[in-house]
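Table S7 (text form). Paired inputs.
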Amino acid sequence: MRFRIIVRTCKGRESIVSNLLASLPEAEVCFDDTGKGAMGNFLKSLRMSGEAPTLMMEDDTLLTEDFLPKVTDAINANPDSVIQFFSRNKDDLRIGSRWQPGGSFIMGQCHYMPRTMCRALLDYAQDWPRLEEHPHGTDLMVADFLKSLRIRYWKHVPSLVDHLPTKSMIDPRRSTSRKSLTFENPMKDMIR
């Protein structure tokens, strides 16, 4: 199955995103020129996707070896479902891959949105009631959207991406060690 790959990035992350694009040359970049930070750029990426099935990624992502074949296999197994490829949940070690209630969606590092889902989420975002409370809460908005439709998502274990140890552009006080408990075999060309 064919799907788009959209990587969200912003000013100051040029070297990080170029490193990621060297490993994923087919990826498209969604650059934050909205003036509305992470949420504005997330909404821009949803508009970019339109109706297409899309793998959504943040720029500070470390890929596993053979990332594209692995992510493609996982998407082909559940092409009509939201799939999350990054997690820090302790149940990942105990249970492994599993269906999760939509309201538990957290961490938007790398996830797949099936055909028409990005458009539906963009429509939902227009009236999301928690925007003022969580102006950068892209993952919270996805969770509320999935919960409102009673949609479960597939949490893929092991994580196929990990979080690079970089400062958050949203909140520099966030820990730089937000790591997956199951990520393995980092792509060697991405380690510097």
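Next pair, protein 2 of 2.
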Amino acid sequence: LEFRRVLFRSPKTKAKHQPVRAGYTQAEEAKLRRIASNQPNAITQRQGCVTVGLACGAGLDASELRHTWVRQVLDHGDDGIEVVVTGVNARRVWVRREYEALVRAGIAGLSADRTIFGHTQASRNVVNSVLSRLQFVEDGLTFDAARMRTTWLAWLVTRPLSLRAILDVSGLQSARTLGEIISHLPPDTTDVRPVLRGED
């Protein structure tokens, strides 16, 4: 009987790996910030600002955005904005300076006991819904939460941080994604000889 159980056990299927798409260029980032900040509808503008601000500016993915409450976004004024990410990849991360204004605009006036989208509980497709409502006229530019996070990760790997620190603040469990992101970056022409010789 045990042999039959083993023989007819359904094989486990491994989830197919989705290749990482390139992030946005610096020029495209500027357009994302400008478009999110200039929406005709006040609610769409606020939600667009906080989505772009935390995805591009702090690397939160769509699921993390959906589960983030206003009380988890800690504004320290001139010392920056800290975000407490909960869940499987719990961590603390800081918003890039260029995106602080967007985040502040996105949560202004909201109760601490609401999600960043202004609800007591955000729906599963809230991020896609917000991005689909943004009105813009930039040729060929689309708002994609996954590419926004990739943009932040691409920026992160160019910072003077150890691999351990990068994994910790990004919530990644391995460096596989980073390797794919690096393949999208332009060649680095920095003279590495002093570093390799221990002269840094």
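The radius of gyration is 20 Å.
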